[in-house]
Amino acid sequence: NIAFRRSFGPAEVREWADLREVVPLPLSLDLDSVSWSLSPSDDFSVSSAYQALCRLPVLPWLSPLWKAPLPLKIKIFVWQLLRDRLPSGTEVLKRHGPGNGLCPLCHVPETGTHILFSCIAAQALWCFVREALGPEWEATDLAGFLQVRATQVG
């Protein structure tokens, strides 16, 4: 039997019974314990966490980005864009920053892809790029943009 810090009212008793039916957990009188499966001793250490992170595979498709002859800040910008981690409205909102997470022009969620490709301001800029460089520069997202560039370079 499980003991709670306060007694339940009738509605909470029903909810607890419903929860136990939906999620049948084996109850045990044994004390809970914490273990770190990434070390032989089951104890956490910064060293074992670091070693586990170093064993993670590097994404092979990102390798050309880091080897490209570009300034580091451009590489980091593209990496953040690929991981959808640009400080856009939605990312700032996730971290409880100011704003509502919406594009001030389009009133849709402001993601990195939206800022660079689907926002009306970005679309106007891409129209200018297409006019200046040719219609093969059509891109609606980063994957399309990179594909266009790969076919032109290769």
How does the helix and strand content classify structurally? Answer: mainly alpha
Distance between the termini: 68 Å
Low-confidence stretches: none
Radius of gyration: 25 Å
Number of strands: 0
Q: How helical, in percent, are the residues?
A: 40-55%
Principal-axis shape: flat
Number of helices: 8
- Domains (count): 2
Round the mean pLDDT to the nearest integer and report it. Answer: 82
Q: Which percent band covers the strand fraction?
A: under 5%
Largest sheet, if any?
none
Summarize the helix and strand pattern as letters: HHHHHHHH
Structure described in brief:
The protein has helices spanning 10-22, 46-55, 63-67, 72-82, 89-94, 112-118, 120-133, 142-153. It has 154 residues and is an all-alpha fold.
Description:
By secondary structure, the protein is mainly alpha-helical. It is flat and about 75 Å long. Helix content is 51%, strand content 0%. The chain has helices spanning 10-22, 46-55, 63-67, 72-82, 89-94, 112-118, 120-133, 142-153. It has two domains: 10-55, no CATH class; 60-153, no CATH class. The protein has eight helices and no strands. The longest helix has 14 residues, at 120-133.
